[in-house]
Please model this.
Amino acid sequence: MGVFVDENVCNGCGIAVEPMCVRDCPGDLMILKENRKAIIRDNRDCWDCAACVKVCPTQAIAMQLPSSVIVRGVRLKGRAIKHKTTWKLKLRDGTERSYETPATGTPPFNPSL
Amino acid sequence: MNDIEELSCDLLIIGGGAAGCIAAVEAREKAPDLDVLMVEKAHVYRSGCLAAGISALNAYLTTGETAESFLRYTVRDTHGIVRDDLVLSMARELNEQSHRVEKFGLPIPRDENGQPLKRGRASIKILGERIKPILGKAAEQSGARILNRINITGLAMHRGRVTGAFGFHVRTGRFYAIRAKATLLCTGGTAGLYRPNNPGMANHRMWYSPFNTGAGLAMGIRSGAEMTSFEFRFIPLRIKDAIAPTGEIAQWLGAKQINALGEAYLDKYYQHLGGSRMTTQDRLYATIQEKLKGRGPCYLDLSNVDARKLEGTTRAYLSMAPPAAMLLQDEMYYGRGGGTMAPVEITGSEPHVVGGHGLSGFWIDNERRTTLPGLWAAGDVAGGSPKKYAPGAWAEAVLAIRNMIEDVQTRKVVELDEEQVLKERDRVFAPFEDHGNAGTSPRELEERLQKIMDEYAGGISQMYGYSEGELKIADIHLRRLEQEFGAITASSLHELLHAHELMDRVTVSQTLVAHMAHRKETRWHCYGERLDFPERDDTRWSVFVNSVRKGDNIEMVERPVERANVDVVLPPLADGAIIRHGSE
Model:
């Protein structure tokens, strides 16, 4: 386990030559199936870097770690937008927590971030 | 050679990670007339070690620090075996290169005086989730040609000089033969040599990028380049299960290392190693000793940490190691702590061959030239200068590029030797042959490699210790494994990539074992834990252990340690003796 693509949400990045997740995976693990939905070749190979999670324009990809590392039900989603990344972390009882991490821009930045 | 894509360039950069991207930028800035080609096996936006991001620059001279003070810190951590020249020349570039990446858009928070927020003497906080796309885009905008999806497998040689490289496109399967006047290797270090911390489905939940598989080291070894200090195996202390950095909690939140009895064990039991100021490897060693003494496991104590600050830590982990953010938050609410925050268990990772944290890699000169003319090395693939991290990789890349620009002024591109091209093409695609029942998969051989290294070359299960007899068995098994390369079968291009990654890791392992067998002392606990030679021997072993592979033989060479004119102090010997080197 590593990442899961929600086939109801994934649109294969429309007419793009290459879906964003397929482009960005550092292990070249994401592929497009014949139905134009993305899938990971093998979750055993996933590094859990979340590159695909963040870059997916439809937020169809969630990260879920193998159960030898963390209990089922803990899931992470994220979205990289221009100057920040927004995150949604679902804990095992369904509680959802939201975060923001600044990503690009011009200094100075508020040290409390 | 109709089915072969032939390319030509002035400067070839192999690997588009931290070092490669800055190399491309530097080359185009300093020599806009040169044709610069960078090849990358994935895509430069998220490839290499920085894929998930980073939350600190751990090689940055904060106020009051100098290149010389950085060297003192490095010499102490390596117990004297370090290339002073490489460390000093790199350290002088650290801040300038960090500020350059800041200008590309990397956010570096600053205090009211405009100084970056300090995490340690050589460490500052950054907001680095997007650091790799920032570097990748800077490389794209530099005007360098970038070819993603090309996995380089070997170096082209002409009369002892590197004249280019060979590889294949991981999507089209097309074979590439590239001619270059000068070649820079930025392919990173090696993960996956040893059985990793987590099993099966979670086997890639590891510290170092599992996609850094030692390609550059292996092609250098095959071409007869001199390698250094593989026996300094870097093993970081990590948060258990998530295998994420402890520095975020230890440095930023000030959490102490405690044992199962709640004792701050570094100061209580290990004053002779320096207490809480001990070297990186001794922290790991002390943690293992606590287990053996019945006081394990060990933790980072979060009971005195402000919960609001932990939210900041969660954000930092999201920006570099998302699994740690998941684990931390989940533990916070459902952990064993009750009202207070449960302590975070710590453990050592698998051992790595990596020159960015440790010492191992290509033996290079101060211009970052390898021993093969025409080939330079920078970043995790280059040895002799540890603790370089991302800023040091940038520093080495610019130093290499400046020398390469000078070197190519009067050079011409050399035509590739057809026989060499075809031989490498056959080697690259050999796993596509059908071996029937005699065939074996890259994954199966990976399991075997990791079992050999774990059990006979001081892996996690051996608490990193090893002796002569075990290394001999490792060597025999690795030779047998190498003989099975011909039976490796790949059924897709992706599996072909895995086949080459596996073969490269076996080649790196063979040189690693030869180095471990040669150094008959224990200078670095855990990194090089010779159970049959448990003490540091400065009289005999204050040298670099280097090697050159010639065919099946790995020839060992020793090189002297040359101290710069800087006062340095080594950690005490077992009898308490303090060794000083310096100008007086």
